[in-house]
Amino acid sequence: MDEKQKIEFAQKPKNFTEPWDVAVIGSGPASLTAAIYTTRGAASTLILGGEKWGGQLMLTTEVDNYPGFHEGIEGPDLMQKMRKQSERFGAEFIEKNVEAVDFSKEYFELTVGETKYLAKSVIIATGAETKWLGVPGEDRLRGRGVSSCAPCDAPFFKDKDTAVIGGGDSAMEEALVLTKYSNSITIVHRREEFRASAAMQKKVKDNKKIKVIWDTQVKEFVGEQKLEKILLENTKTGEKSELVVDGVFVAVGHTPSTAIFKGKVELDEKGYIVVNDHTKTSTDGVFVAGDVHDYHYRQAITAAGFGCMAGMEALKYLDEKQGNKKQETTLDK
Ligand code: NDP
Question: Is the CB of 190 under 6 A from ligand 1?
Fold first, then answer.
């Protein structure tokens, strides 16, 4: 199909002293959906998408649960489509990280290197990052047998023995990806049951390459130049054991990407952004969408839904602000 013509609904700032109507920080489904809505609502929109743009779906293979793609779609393809859709309506996409934010000024300031971008409203959609176990050897052996992304690294473990740590959907997904390459996959889980969805659990249980070690924690990653084995401990009996593997994929959840927002908007005890009235943060004009506040659903489709909500709220906020300004001007006369 031919590329549809680009349509721009809003005039972009002419220089760095003029503010964007909306700046969206992040570039996963929440961010890009928000930008589709704000651009179509005639608000000039800047997406500060990060150096590694696209979020978690860039590390996923087939996505079968995003409506509209009845035969499934590869995660990176889905993100490309969303990005193109937002750009088609005039969103400006910058593949750089925001290093600092200042929400105390009339126009919010977002620092990227030497540049300070100004915005009348901000949508935070920075998502969440991989959580690590924090045990000895993990950091040192990362990239030398320790990974968190089977779709990225599984081919390095062709005909080798691997393990996956965790009991959620991510762990199941990592294990299933590995079955295409590895000789054997052992899931090590700290409890006696998985928290993954029944559908994912069934796929794992039906695959003969996958074994499970229950009630077990990883205590250490061992290896000189590369991973050689992991030391394990049974959480119920305290019994120690070791598992000789070439690769380990850690899939124990995520941490919200909120370091730059500490002290700028309210965060909860785990670092997620506290959300009020669906999409509002504690700072007027700053909205939030996706995994950076939602630790419950964490799906591409729910993130996109939150993005839509935040985009609509940002438009409403801009309208109200504009209305107030007009009123002030009329009264001043
Ligand atoms: P989850 O929080 O769902 O699961 C994390 C798993 O890691 C849990 O089993 C947890 O154990 C275990 N864990 C956490 N900390 C540790 C630790 N320190 N040591 C050992 N084990 C630990 O995270 P996921 O990333 O799996 O999933 C996040 C969300 O994304 C979920 O809502 C999931 O449904 C969704 N998702 C959906 C997919 C799909 O539909 N295809 C694919 C991937 C994710 P315990 O159970 O004991 O708490």
Answer: yes
Protein residue closest via CA to atom 18 of ligand 1: 133
Helix (H, G, I), strand (E, B) or coil at 37: helix
**Whole-Å CA distances, 194 to 172, 206, 237:** 9, 15, 19
Give first-to-last CA distance, the chain, whole Å: 54
153 is catalytic: yes
149 catalytic? Reply is yes
Ligand 1 mean position to 165 CA, how many Å? 10
Q: Which residues contact 258 (CB under 8 A, 6 or more apart)?
A: 126, 267, 271, 272, 273, 292
Residue ranges per structural domain of the chain: 3-129+254-332, 132-250
Rounded distance from Cα 19 to ligand 1 centre (Å):
40
- The residue whose C-alpha atom lies closest to atom 9 belonging to ligand 1 is 167
Print pLDDT tens along the chain (333 aa): 446 778 889 999 998 899 999 999 999 999 999 999 999 999 999 999 999 999 888 877 778 889 999 999 999 999 999 999 999 999 999 999 999 999 999 999 999 999 999 999 999 999 998 899 999 999 999 989 999 888 878 999 999 999 999 999 889 999 999 999 999 999 999 999 999 999 999 999 999 999 999 999 999 999 999 999 999 999 999 999 999 999 999 999 889 999 999 999 999 998 999 999 999 999 999 999 999 999 878 789 999 999 999 999 999 999 999 887 766 655 554
Q: Name the closest-CA residue to atom 28, ligand 1.
A: 253
Answer yes or no: same fold for 3-129+254-332 and 132-250: yes
**CA–CA gap between residue 190 and residue 194 (Å, rounded):** 9
Q: Is 75 in the pocket of ligand 1 (CB under 6 A)?
A: no
Q: What is the pTM of this model?
A: 0.76
Structure tokens given for 308: 């839509």
- CATH 1.10.238.10 given to domain 3-129+254-332: no
The alpha carbon of 31 and the centre of ligand 1 are apart by a number of angstroms equal to 23
Q: What are φ and ψ of residue 96, in 5° steps?
A: -140, 155
Fold of 132-250: FAD/NAD(P)-binding domain (3.50.50)
